[in-house]
Amino acid sequence: MDDRFGRVFRGVKRIVDLLVDPLRKNPNAAKFDLSIPEAHTTTVDGDTGWASRPPAWVTCPQCGSDIHQRDVHETIDCPRCVATYAPNEFAELELKHLQCPVCGNVMEDGIRHPNVFTMPEWATCHRCHYHWEFDHLF
User: Fold this and answer.
1) Is residue 56 part of a domain?
2) I want to staple 99 with a disulfide (CB 3.0 to 4.6 A). Which of 55, 59, 93, 124 is the partner?
3) Cα distance between residue 39 and residue 16, in whole Å
4) Source organism's superkingdom (predicted)?
5) Which domain holds residue 97?
6) What is the spatial distance between Cα 7 and Cα 1, in angstroms, rounded to a whole number?
């Protein structure tokens, strides 16, 4: 009877281990995530929303120099000429690139709804895998 109980216990333990093993923390992983493999992305860290938009580099329409806007609420002030732009004028300026807030790398960005938005809706850093998404309702 004890031997049969031991076999059943080992069988149940093996089944539980098979089910739980994928959920155990990988010591090499930077972040623990329970998302399913089919929907899992390669990103490690990220933010959502316009207020969390990564720092941006835009072109000054008056003199053509690069302007760095560190924060989405910061005035866009050209370091070369006297041009200044309010933060809400960002979409009217030519975007050179977004800069990863984690490692400083140039991010790949894109627009999913070009008939609705003229500014980036997502950006991904291929070096550190940081990802930013513009948050909208559709």
Assistant:
1) yes
2) 55
3) 24
4) Archaea
5) 32-133
6) 10
